[in-house]
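User: Batch of two.

Assistant: Item 1 of 2:
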Amino acid sequence: MGRGLSNLEDAFKGALKERLPEAVYRVWFSEVGVNVKDRKLILKVANEFAKNWIKENYQELISAVAQDFGFHEWDFQVVPRGKPEQLVIPYSPLEVIGRRLSPRYTFEDFVVGKCNELAYKVSLRFVEEPPKGGLIYFCGNFGLGKTHLSQAIANVLYKKGFHRVFYFTGQDFLTYLMKYLKSGSLDVFKTKIQEGCDLLIIDGVHFLSGKEFTQVELAFLLDYLLDYGKNVIFTSLKLPKDMVDFDSTLKSRLNAGLIVKLHQPDFETRKRIIRFKAKKLGYNFPYDVVEYLARMVRGDIRQIESIVNGLIARAKLLNEPITVLLAKELLSEVSEANEEAQDLEVFVERVCKFFGIERSSLFSNSRKRELMLARQVLIYLLKKHTQRSLKELAEIFRKEHSTIIYHLKSIEKKLSEDRALKFKVELLTREILEEYQGISFENASGEEDLNL
C-alpha cells in the first residue's frame, strides 16, 4: 500500500473509532483494510461473516464517514488471511448442537442501571472467577437483557478457553430432545451435553411449561452437569415458584441456583440507554430530546432502541436536525400512548418500585396489607396530582365508585395519624414530580381537598 492509501486507512479507521464503542471497533474494524478502486472506497475484510455483519449493523455509519472523505460509493472485498483464527469472532462455532452466540452481546454494549445492576455484577463475577457447578437463573420480562447477559458471559468464557458452550432456546431444547427420542438415540443427545460442554445455556426455560417428559429429562441432566462441575445458565419470564405445569423436582433444582431478577429500566437508565444507542450510530442527542424520550418511552430496551433508530432515520430522511418536535411527531405515529397515559405509567412505576411490588399485583384483587396500602397511595396521588376524576380512577382500577372513595378516605386517615407514612408519601411524590417535569400537574406542591 502506498503512502497515500496508508494515510487514508489510518484517517478513515480513526474516524470510525471516534464514533464507535471501543469494544465494537476492536472486534470488527481494527483489522479492516482500506483501498480505493475506480473512485470507490473498498473495505477489505477477512471473511463473509465479517462482511455481512458489518454491512447489516454499520452500513449507515460507514456511508456517512465515507462521504466525509469524498467517497459516494463503497464496497467490501473479502481477503482471507490464511487459516482462520478461531478466536477472532467471539461466538461459539458449535453447529452440531445448539445455536451460535451473537457477537453483539457483550458487556461493553450492556447499559447498566439500578434495574439491572445486580444481574450485571453477578455476570461479571461469573466470568472473572468461573465457578464449578454454578447455576444462574435470570428472570424478567421481554427485552430487559436476559439474553444479552447470558450470551455476554458465554462470549467472554469462550475467549478464555471455554470452547464447549452449548446454547439453546427453550424451544430448541425441546426440538432436539424430541428429534433424538424419535430416532431412538436419546442417550446420544444427553451424552453429547454431559460430556461435551463446559457451559449450558437454555434461554427461555419457561417454554417447557407443560412438557412433563422434557422437564424430567432436564432435571436429570441438570443434576449430572452440576455434580461434575459444569456451569448452567437459565433465563425465564417467571420465577421458578411461579412456573405453571412445571415439575416440582425441576423447580426445586432451579430454586437452588442464584436467582437474579431484571426489572423495567427506570428513568435514569432509560436516559443512559437512549444516549448509548444514539452514540453507537454516531449521534449525540440534545439534552431535551433525551429527557423527552426517557419520559415518554417507558417500555423495554428493544422498544427504546427502536424509537432511537426511528428518530435517526426520520431525521436523515427529512434532512432535519433531531429535535423534541421531531421526536413528538415520531411518537404520535408509532405509539398509541399519549401524555395522559404516560403520566399514569410514571405514577405506577414509581409506586411499584417504592413498595417493592409487581405491577400485576398492584392491579390484582389481592387484599394483602402491603398491596392495599400501595394501591391506596397510588389512588391518592393520582387524584391529588392529575386531572383524573373519581369515575376515571374507578375505571383504571376496575373498582366501584364507592370503593375508590373508601380508599381515598382510608389513606387520608392513615396519613393524618402516621407521620412516618406521610413523610414517605411526600418523598415519593417529589420523586415522581421531579422525574416527570414535562407534564403539567395541577397544584403539584400545595395541599388540596379531595372533594369527596
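Item 2 of 2:
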Amino acid sequence: MKVGPFVEGRLLQRYKRFLADVELPDATVVTAHCANPGRMTSCTAPGIPVRLSYHADPKRKLAWSLEQTCMEGTWILTNTLIHNRIVAEALAEQRIAELTGYERVASEQRYGERSRVDFLLSGERGRCYVEVKGVTLARGSAAAFPDAVTERGRRHLDELISVVQGGDRAVMLFCVGRADVDTVEPAADVDPAYAARLYEAHAAGVELIAYRCAIGEDSVRLDAPLPVVNLRPRATRRP
C-alpha cells in the first residue's frame, strides 16, 4: 500500500495522549496529531526520528499527523488508523493464508450488542468475523498487546466468543507495525483483565493470528505471519 509523502523530523515530546511536538529539518517546531490512544511504550522517546504527513484541510485543527516513529533503526507504525487499511489490502489480494476463500469482504459491520466488526468475510465457506488490533509495543523480540488498559478490547473479545458460540468463525488478527519482533503475546502485566479474556476467547475457539508489517519510505504491506504465544496464564508460585 502506498503511503506518504512524509516529512521527517525529530520528536521533542508526546503529551496529552494525542499531541506531539516535532522539530522539522528547517528547525521549525510543529504540533502534530497523534492518532494513537495507547501509551506508545517502546515506540517514542525524545530525539528519535519521526515521519509526519501534512493535510491542508482547513477543517482540521492540526495540519500535521504523526505517522511513524523510529526506535534503534526500526520504523514503527504509530498511526492506529492505518492498520485496517493494511489488512483490507491484504484481504483483497488474498495474502492472509488463514482468511482466503471467501467471496465477499465487508468492513465495519454491526454485530453483537453494540459493536462493529472490522471485517466480515462471507461466502460458501460461511461467515468469518475478523477484529484487527494494531500492535506497537515490543519487549525484546516479542510484540505485546495491549500497551494500555482497554475495556473496548475486552468487549470485542466477548463479542467474538459469542460469534463462535453462534456457529460462525471468529478471528482476532494482530497487525504488528514493526519489523523487529518474532512473536506476539498478551501483555498480561499491562492489562490482566484483557489477557485473561484473551485466554478464555482462545479456549472458546476464537482464532488468534498475527502478521508483521514491512515498512518502506513510501509503502507499507502485511508481510510475514508471526506465532501468538503465551496463551495460558502463568502459574503462580506458592510461598
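The mean pLDDT is 94.
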